[in-house]
Amino acid sequence: MHKKRTLATAIVGVALLYAGSALAQRPDPNQPPPGPAPVNAAGRVLLQGATPADKGVWTPVFGILDPIAPVDVVPFQPWSRALYDARQLHELEPHARCKASGTARQFLTPYGVEFVEMPALEQLYIFDIGGPHTFRTVYMDGRSHPTNLEPTNYGHSVGWWEGDTLVIDSVGFNEDFWLDRRGLPHTEKMHTIERFTRADERTINYEITVDDPGAYTGQWTGAFNLRWNEGVELFEYVCQQANYAHELMVGQESTKVDRSSPIVP
Fold this sequence. Notes:
The protein is an alpha+beta fold. The chain has three helices and nine strands. The chain has one domain (2-28, 50-250).
């Protein structure tokens, strides 16, 4: 057992070192200002590099332990506020147990995400690196949401371009994930609109509007930026291998989790 924990500790340690490097890539005042966002032959902004040879992934600029919207302006229902408060104590997040997380939580790992457009299929894919290492499909062919959806972690997403902004409309979520790293709850009634605006070659402005009458008394909006990490590619991520070191990820159930480190899956 000791050898297994040592191996798991080493794996997590390497991951944390990489994560710390990714988080460190914030705006540097000594660097020249960023150039314009790359565009395709039609003049529309791209969400990756200017050519297939330009590798990179997107990581969050702000602290990944911060809420995506100020808690005092989120219109909680009493039960959802109580659940949010409880999650500040136990922090038993599904993502830390290798479960896929939809909407904003997908972009709040220190390892990054990659957008892959498939024009011939009229689809766009968002690949995760951290956590479960899964991907989300966005249908870009003008279809509507199906009337009878089986709820899933990613829901059903349709997208379109408004100028240089990618808009994604999603429904059909289950309740098996948190909206962000701090634990904002939701129900199966949730409907989200996400907007991805590439402001320049290094920045995407991300905004999410949440409409969930099951958990909130009105719509609300959260936002943060994503930073381009040039040269980084998708890599194999082993999430909590064989559950050897679960306490390193979420702690013991009977104790409060140590929040002294900003690194999370």
